């Protein structure tokens, strides 16, 4: 089954709550002090990212899946429908991409009112990446390397095959 077909099938089953349970894999370093959790297919597909050219920041909806988060009660973001959503923090998220490379997203806004996570293409472009959309595929390119890929479903581009990595540091003895 193609990536596009698999994503379309997951999105069409969105209303069937409880069927898609999150999966979590745990890896620990040799001294058992640091743990990394890999989370994929969260409930309601809340782990999926929409690649958004109108979004000013990367925005994530679940505070428990940040690897680092500084919470605060100030700041808002104006949504596309002119609604205002509160920014409740800023932090770091690690994503394992389709090719196995782990990307670190910094200054990600924690916005609990979101229905979907938003990946800012403007942030990528201002960081020197070239964004190309053609034939239903979006690519972010650095030099000759494709560092990010998305597939168009309807008129939205969804980040291809990424898994969230949550690093949790245990207390040092």
SS class: mainly beta
Largest sheet: 7 strands, mixed
Note the overall shape.
Answer: globular
The number of distinct structural domains comes to: 1
List the helices and strands in order: HEEEEEEEEEEHEEEEE
Classify the helix fraction into a percent range. Answer: under 10%
- Arithmetic mean of pLDDT: 75
Low-confidence stretches: 14-45, 167-173
Distance between the termini: 48 Å
Number of helices in the DSSP assignment? 2
Number of E-type strands: 15
Strand content: over 45%
Question: How would you describe this structure in keywords?
Answer:
2 helices, 9% helix, mainly beta, six-stranded mixed sheet, 173 residues, disordered C terminus, seven-stranded mixed sheet
Topology:
Elements: H1 3-12, E1 23-28, E2 34-40, E3 49-52, E4 59-60, E5 68-71, E6 76-78, E7 84-86, E8 89-96, E9 102-110, E10 117-120, H2 121-126, E11 130-134, E12 137-142, E13 145-153, E14 156-159, E15 163-169
Parallel strand pairs: 3-10, 4-9
Antiparallel strand pairs: 1-2, 2-15, 3-14, 5-8, 6-7, 8-9, 8-15, 11-12, 12-13, 13-14
Characterization of this structure:
- It contains 2 helices and 15 strands.
- The model is unreliable at 14-45 and 167-173 (pLDDT under 50).
- A hairpin with a 2-residue loop joins strand 13 (145-153) and strand 14 (156-159).
- The protein is 9% helix and 47% strand.
- The protein has one domain.
- The protein has helices at 3-12, 121-126, and strands at residues 23-28, 34-40, 49-52, 59-60, 68-71, 76-78, 84-86, 89-96, 102-110, 117-120, 130-134, 137-142, 145-153, 156-159, 163-169.
- The strands form 3 sheets. Strands 1, 2, 4, 5, 8, 9 and 15 form a 7-stranded mixed sheet that branches. Strands 10-3-14-13-12-11 form a 6-stranded mixed sheet. The protein has a two-stranded antiparallel sheet with strand order 6-7.
- The longest helix has 10 residues, at 3-12.
- It is globular, with a radius of gyration of 16 Å.
- The protein is mainly beta.
């Amino acid at each position: 089954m193609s990536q596009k077909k698999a994503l379309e099938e997951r999105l069409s089953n969105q209303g069937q709550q409880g069927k898609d349970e999150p999966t979590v894999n745990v890896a620990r370093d040799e001294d058992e002090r640091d743990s990394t959790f890999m989370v994929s297919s969260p409930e309601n597909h809340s782990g999926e990212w929409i690649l958004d050219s109108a979004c000013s920041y990367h925005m994530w909806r679940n505070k428990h899946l940040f690897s680092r988060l500084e919470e605060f009660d100030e700041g808002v973001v104006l949504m596309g429908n002119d609604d205002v959503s509160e920014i409740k923090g800023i932090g770091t998220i690690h994503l394992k991409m389709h090719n196995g490379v782990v990307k670190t997203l910094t200054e990600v806004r924690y916005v609990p009112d979101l229905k979907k996570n938003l990946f800012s293409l403007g942030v990528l472009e201002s960081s020197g990446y070239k964004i190309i959309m053609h034939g239903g595929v979006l690519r972010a390119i650095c030099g000759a390397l494709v560092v990010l890929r998305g597939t168009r479903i309807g008129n939205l581009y969804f980040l291809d095959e990424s898994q969230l990595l949550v690093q949790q540091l245990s207390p040092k003895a």
